[in-house]
User: Fold this.
Amino acid sequence: MSDKRQMTLTLTDNEMKLLEDLAERKELTKTAIIRMALRLFQLVDERTAEGGKLFIEAGDKQKTELALL
Amino acid sequence: MSVHTAYIIDAATGDPVQVELDDDLTVDVLLDVEDQWKVPREELRAKLRALGVARKDWPESLWWDWGMKSVRLAFGDPNDFRIMALRRQAVWEAAMVTRSKNHVALLAPDIGKPIVYVDFLEVAPWNWTIDKIQNRKFKASGPVLLRAALEQSYAKGWDGRVGLHALPQAASFYLGQGLQFVKNDPAKQDLPYYEISAAEALKRTGRR
Assistant:
């Protein structure tokens, strides 16, 4: 089992607001939001490095590529 | 979140081992679960490869990633899912995600009535017995979590009705727990779907 390590994070006001909003909306801590964002970033990084593309499927099953510009 | 005392069994000695059943965890806890289970899973994969075991005979949940399940749940409806897990000191021994929206019984006489649906249930990799590689460390984690799903169903007034799609290797486990095979489900990669009826749940839990 790995231990947890602490770090200090410096964010802009907008980024902090976004983090606080997400934490409130998801009923999670800010740390939890950042940990999940990191996990998602890792997945996207792995898949795109393999040549994969990201698609968002809408409610009507229409798929749109999520362009990483 | 509420925490209850539960017991699993030391597979080597048969002694009961006290654990905590956390029955309403937040999604980020699954990141901790993955953190603890990832390396043992990788080690098992390496051993299976080294022994030349055919892929079809590998544990079917060996490719699960609780970190990604965590992220997926975070984008979902928190009123739909519930996360439960067994913790022995600081170690996660088993984890489960249940859902309580949009799932109904397929078994008579309760067809169409709501059920608790077990989306995922897995015990820690060191709790798997794998021929020629390892004997499980603890047993009974799965039944403890399944019982928790039944209790969730009772708490909702759903008479203990629970359903799930099982990985084929887990079929005998669920049958042994009183679930009944209903059908292979084409909507879920043809996975077998099982359900425990209110009557069977009553027998299993000893409720009156």
User: Anything to note?
Assistant: The first helix of chain B runs from residue 29 to 50.
